[in-house]
Structure formats: C-alpha cells, structure tokens
Write the structure tokens for this entry.
Amino acid sequence: MKRGITVVGQYNDFACFAACLESIKRDWGDSEFTHEKFVKENLDIFNGGDKHEGLCSNPFEACRRVGLHGDIISGDFEFDHSDTAIIMSIWSGGLEKNKHFVRLFDSYPDKHKVMNPTYSDCYDCIPHEWVKVVIKITKP
C-alpha cells in the first residue's frame, strides 16, 4: 500500500509550484522549508510572485535552489516516493489560461491522483489530457 504524500495549500493563487516543492521537502525530512518564504526570497524566478506568470518561470532553477534536481520526462514511468517525486504542469479544464502545477501521487488508466495545492485538505483527480509537462524531481 502506498503511503500518502503531504498536502500543502498554496499561500496565494500563484504559488503552486513552490507549494509542490514544500510537499516534497516535507516528505523527505525538511520540516523547516516553507514555500511562502521561498517565493518571497526568490521573486526573480517567480516573476514577482503575484501574477499568473508567477507560477514559476524556471522550475529547474527553483529545484536547484532548494537542493533538488528536476528533469523533464516523457512516456511511461514508475517511481518510488522515497527518492523521486513528480510535478506536473497542467492546464486545468484543458484551458491554457488555467496553467497550474500539481504533484503526482498515483496514476490510473483514466486519471492521475494528485496533490493539488489549490486545496489544502485533500487529493484531487485529473484527466491525463490536462498534463502538458512532467518534471521528475530527485535528490542530487
């Protein structure tokens, strides 16, 4: 049985990538990291942190700055939550204007179960078609 992943609610409408990083950092033993502080200290990669482009202009640099490594992957993949995490760039509702980042918990034939930082108290399910980019996060 899979153990859950930490659910983190984003502190504003545009901190979803950073909230996913906080979820990963907590699961891997870093209880001190907070995504709000990280965004505010790294506005150069969050485009000011308060507009849609604030999602994260450079996810790979964001990963590097928190001591993680990110790579784009494609095709089928399996991973172990203990040393790998997956963050997905999605278009919520299939609409480009609704760009968002979520953390993958599990995949099924017709959907992905994700930690959606828009909701701080539960997991969410999204269709495969919403996923635009898959980023594999590992410890360096």
